[in-house]
Design brief:
With about 190 residues, the chain is mainly alpha-helical. It is built from eleven helices and no strands.
Amino acid sequence: MDYEQMIAQLSKILTPKRLQHSIGVSETAEELAGIFGCDKGKARVAGLLHDVAREIPVDELLSRAEAFGIVMSDIERAEPILLHAFIAAKLAQSDFCINDAEIFQAICLHTIGGLHMSLLDKIIYVADAIEPGRQYEDLEELRAIARIDLDKALLMTLDQSIQYILKRGGLLHPATIEARNELLIKKT
């Protein structure tokens, strides 16, 4: 399945707004891949498919994850929306004929991050936060930093995510904390 066929397939699954977001992440990921020397094709595909499961109703995510054999943590069971990333990786394989472990991992980590994130993982995580459709405070600074220092942009994005979750009184996923701590340790 080529890129245009993937977009056509996604247009049957996602709302126009979500599809536009996915295309924005894809294009941003491809640009960042060019800057940082990552495979542009993988970045483009991972960005396009990262949210393929994002519009599955929350009450269906647990059963879908179980059907795919996804092992869930207590936090993922309590916050099933987090499962959309893992389900998206499975759908990329089953419905979009992708057979690339690096792409699957980048899709899986785009919401929570994790230890030892690859260059592609970092690109998809940051591209999701800065794609052209996003609008929030300090975004332009983050966009500029993302084109110069990917790890710094990732750390800023993780910090924003953690602050957002704390304001909502939500559960922090250990993988997000681990990703942040690993970046901070590398800086010292």
